Amino acid sequence: MGKLVRRGVFVGLACLVWAMGGGGLMSKVVAQAAGQPAAALASAPTMEILLPSGPDARAGLEPSSEAQGEGRPLSNEDLKLEAGPEGAGEPARHEPATRRSPVSGSVPLGEPMAAGRSGRTGPVAATASSQPSEAAGAAAVASGPLTVQIGLYVLDLAHLDLKESSFFADFYIWYKWRDRPGQEWNPSNIEFMNGTIEMATPLATDTFGEVRYASQRIKGRFRGRFDLRAYPFDRQRLPIVIEDSSMPASRLVFEPDPNNTRIGRWIEAGVQVPDWKVAGARVYTDQHVYDTDFGDSYTSSDTRTIYHRFNFEIRLERLFVPHLIKFIIPLLVIAGMAYLVFWINASEFEAQCGICVTALLTAVALHISQADALPAVGYLVISDKIFIVFYVFIFTALAQTVVANNHAKRGRIRVAMALDEFFRWAYPLGLLFFCVLAMAF
């Protein structure tokens, strides 16, 4: 009995040493103790032991099922020991763990992440979700920009203010276009670049086959850049400028509605503007360049942005009769007052001088009232030049009165009368000549 116990203890110790890497030597010892050939034990399969990490290892407990491979991946601290005749006790090699992008693909830990156009970080390689949008954008560019036809019908024009460079307009506007896959246009993105909209009806939309249609009524105050150099004989244009707020010229272009162009009726027949004649309308398109990237961090700082524009201009011609009464006739009356001094006796100096001073002050007051109706501009308008001519000739009449009176007091009546006779025909001719010259230049 004691011999049997001693043999069992010896075999247990031998198995433990063999499991810890005792090698072929212990195989012989076990074979002798068990009474088996050493070769049979040496050819037994290799055993692998996974040493757990964490609290289980520190407590000397058996590793949990999760640590054995059912849930937790191995870390670099985990060791894999192989028992065998050679290389016993050496840790096995493991590939580094990887992190996977939210969409697809994986990047080993430590490798750099590339920034995409959307601003989010992602793998250097393109993900599958970004490919359809890029393909759609490329197809849109290849097929050319979307074309939108625009038509207008003006119902009313009012409150033309040259000083404020503004006017009020009430009109209908409509749009016709065909959407494409990846190229869809929203008419609510339309902007009136030179106006403030006071009232806009909701967009009325419809579809005729592949053609989409939208229309609405607009009321608003618009601004124009009026050229007043020819005032009061000027012609003006009232512009309405339309631009899309989201799609540049490479993706969207405008053109006039061909049906509306053939009819040639852009303005209702009864539309009137006080002191003006509505002479027609002009429609054209162009491109506007913005020397900015609008803060887009994905474009270079010197990038220029180009948008297509639809321009509608109403042509006005100033009526002659109202300005004949307000401007030309008062000036002729002032010039006639100054002209009367040449028909008064040279000895009547006080009367002649009073007439000239009154005419000069009247001309200044009329000039100020005309200037109040105009904005501050950096050039002389025709009315300014005409008033300057009148100032010069009124002052000339005053100077001639002083000289003629001086000759009359010295007894040279013939000389004084000769001066009066000369200015009686030279004054009106010279005034007319220089007024025409002022209007020409």
TrEMBL record:
GO terms for cellular component: membrane. GO terms for molecular function: extracellular ligand-gated monoatomic ion channel activity; transmembrane signaling receptor activity. It is found in: Membrane. The chain crosses the membrane at residues 324-344, 351-370, 376-401, 422-440. Residues 328-410 form the Neurotransmitter-gated ion-channel transmembrane domain. Pfam families: Neur_chan_memb. Residues 51-130 are annotated as: Disordered. It is a multi-pass membrane protein. Its main location: membrane. Keywords: Membrane, Transmembrane, Transmembrane helix. This is Neurotransmitter-gated ion-channel transmembrane domain-containing protein. It comes from Candidatus Ozemobacter sibiricus.
